[in-house]
């Protein structure tokens, strides 16, 4: 799923527009692959998106992709009963969820509405709850039930 975008200038248009990109407020995007060199094309290292609806769509897409990755990570924990260290794997998953939460707050909070932030917080809380519930389940499963004997003391 490699998407490549090519921006073509209009040949009939004779005007040149200058932007001071340091002063533009928008969503910064950088290229993931810096090694792409296309012949007869403009190579773009950085883009600043200033259209609010496009920013919203990009942020939602990035957040949804990261949530899908976290869900896949948690699903792999559930589907892998042969894991030698399930508690360690769960701690990694819990750390990833916390990292995701901090990243969303730091990177994307200014581009999101309050309703989107509340929805994202609910999704993160559900992910955290799932991981902690699984950790409790595994801990109880690993600790054998001790049988207590009652003795009368004199």
Number of helices: 3
Q: Describe the biggest sheet?
A: 2 strands, antiparallel
Instruction: Write out the strand line-up for the largest beta sheet, numbering strands in chain order.
Output: 1-2
What gap, in angstroms, lies between the N and C termini?
A: 76 Å
Count of DSSP strands: 2
Low-confidence stretches: none
Judged by helices, strands and strand pairing, the structural class is mainly alpha
Quaternary assembly? single chain
Helix fraction? 40-55%
Determine the mean pLDDT.
77
Query: Which percent band covers the strand fraction?
Result: 5-15%
Radius of gyration: 25 Å
Tell me, briefly, the overall form: elongated
H/E series: EEHHH
Model description:
The protein has a two-stranded antiparallel sheet with strand order 1-2. It is built from three helices and two strands. The chain is elongated. Helix 1 runs antiparallel to helix 2, helix 1 packs parallel to helix 3 and helix 2 (86-108) runs antiparallel to helix 3 (114-142). Helix content is 52%, strand content 5%.
What is the element layout, followed by pairings?
Layout: E1 27-30, E2 46-49, H1 52-79, H2 86-108, H3 114-142
Antiparallel strand pairs: 1-2
Describe, in short, the structure shown.
This protein is mainly alpha-helical and 154 residues long. The protein has helices at residues 52-79, 86-108, 114-142, and strands at residues 27-30, 46-49.
Main features:
elongated; mainly alpha; two-stranded antiparallel ribbon; single chain; 52% helix; 154 residues
